[in-house]
Amino acid sequence: MRRDGPEPPRARYPEAYRASESPNSLGSDWRQQQEEARFGVKRGRMAPLGQVIGEINRRAPGRQLDAGIEDIGGRPVYRVRWMTANGRRVDYIVDAATGAILGEH
Predict the structure, then answer these.
(1) What is the CATH number of the domain that holds 33?
(2) Cα(105)–Cα(44) distance, rounded to whole angstroms?
(3) Number of domains the chain is built from
């Protein structure tokens, strides 16, 4: 049966959809990280990621590439991958409880 109109995007570009369905750079537990962050923010134990992103942007204008939660020395930290306006990639380590930037790599 012939169909009029363009092909659906999935049929034309299947490799793009396969790539988007693969695990992201944060690893397979990123959904659990999101839930952990939401729970921590609701309980007042973690700074909202939006607040952290705003602080990083004030420090070094650019854009967020991705973010995740890690444990360093028994305390949760955000690792925020950032692209500066001049194209430099920086990983910010941020205390998840206070929102204070602890370092950058």
Answers:
(1) 3.10.450.40
(2) 28
(3) 1
Place of tokens 């952990």: 36
**pLDDT tens digits, one per residue of 48-83:** 999 999 999 999 999 999 998 898 999 999 999 999
Containing structural domain, residue 40: 27-104
C-alpha pair distances (Å), 39 with each of 36, 49, 80: 5, 12, 19
Those residues with Cβ within 8 angstroms of residue 79's Cβ, 6 or more apart along the chain or in another chain:
67, 68, 69, 70, 91, 92, 93, 94
